[in-house]
Specification:
This protein is α+β, with helices and mostly antiparallel strands and about 525 residues long. Strand 3 and strand 4 form a beta hairpin. The protein is globular. About 50% of the residues are buried. Helix content is about 30%, strand content about 20%.
Amino acid sequence: MTMTGDHNGSRRAFCANTGLVIAALGASGPLSALAQMKNSLTIAYNVDLPSWDPTVGPSAVNPTIQSLYKAVFAQFITQNPDLSLKSDLLTEWGWNADKTQVSMTVRNGAKWHDGTPITAEDVAWSLRRAADPKTGNPIQFLWSKITNIKAVGNKVTADVREYEPALFKWMAFLTGYILPKAYFEKVGAEAFEKKPIGSGPYKVDEFVRGSHVRLSAFKDYFGPKPVFETVVIKFTTDPSSRVAEVESGRSDLTLEIPYEEADRLKAKGFGVSTAPISDIGMIFLTNVEPMTNDKVRKALAMAIDKKALASRLLRGYVRPLETLEAPGYAAYDANIKAPFDPKKAAALMAEAGYSAAKPLKFKVQTTRGFKPKDFEVMQAVVGMWSRIGVQAELEVYEVAKHYELRSQHKLAPAAFYNWGNAIGDPSTSTGFAMFSHSPHSAWKDPKVLDGMIAPLWGEKDEAKRIAGYKAVSKYIADEALVIPLFQYSQTVVYRKGLKFTPHGAGFVVPQAIGQ
């Protein structure tokens, strides 16, 4: 059996700080004091945390909160900043020769936050639980592709029910977390929410929903010890408030602020990172009226000047895209084009029966402050559409509402979203966003599009699989079934004295921050 382990170099080592910290903190005043303490870190985070189980429900497939989960829970496998895989609780993994079985080796000596040892059975149980449709794992259909999962010693083996090309990539991605079998079965799901136990570098000391979470370093963590003994993460959804947090010194670090604010703070001496990440800004189109009219869809896509949005509104910190595959993704194809052509867009709208005198009206949903200038981008898009005979109503919603509506197939005809694809595989971008049976798709095309995507889920020939996804991307672009906008750069701003290394997937994890 060919095995894959951590061949990408050792993890970055951090020195542990040993100073005294405040033993107990309230939900308000003392939190601001933490930002002034040498062995503490305060982060103004851009989203709230709805749930502490990283394997079930809508939160489990929200890329923006994975950084919080990664601080508390170890995964089967994790990633380097360049998105390559490296060991976490698994030290080896791989297929047998004909890819009918998988085998994994579990790290020796790792512990849960309650001090009990992590066993191979914890890994096997986590995989069986993920595959059980009764559990509520939104990626259950993927985990169920392996069966007969067994633990012997520090080894876990399983039979392959259906080949999944990205199986091990998923072990470093959404829902790919290992939970403590004995503790979870003892206390139940409800009690686990109140007192979660993981095996990551930090354990949860206090959680106030809608306010903050306070973490403390886990002394028995199997990996490099984090620099900061105490971490407070404030849920600060308003971007101007995040700017104020870091500028005033109440927080040490923040992220996803407007690019002009990042430039301003950089001039004031703050550390600023604006590295490209694997996130894609996009407009979901739902297969309801008026989007079922192909002339309307194509006109909407052609009317958007992505280059102008990127250069003028987003200060050149984003890269215009034509597909849901970004540079660095396995199936990125620079030859696929979706040109900006407002004259042809207006002509198509006229053919569809709409004009400035007889405008097409529909609702457009967008987040506000979730990504830099997301609302302003969609305001500009609505303005561009108005020039071709569209009168769109812009509605603001929280990203949690987006997940709820998308899972029920109730998104507006057009809805802005940021698609995070940490592993860069086409199945986890184009596949999951566009396949009708995926709970994450807005456009449902069971005849043509599903017919193109379905064979690719289990394609064992990697070159053929990637070529297939490129063909899917071209079809989607030609038919304007979704409107990709651009690949983001992530803004992270931090006080002097901190050391921050950007991650290709946009993870901002406290254990990777030094000083």
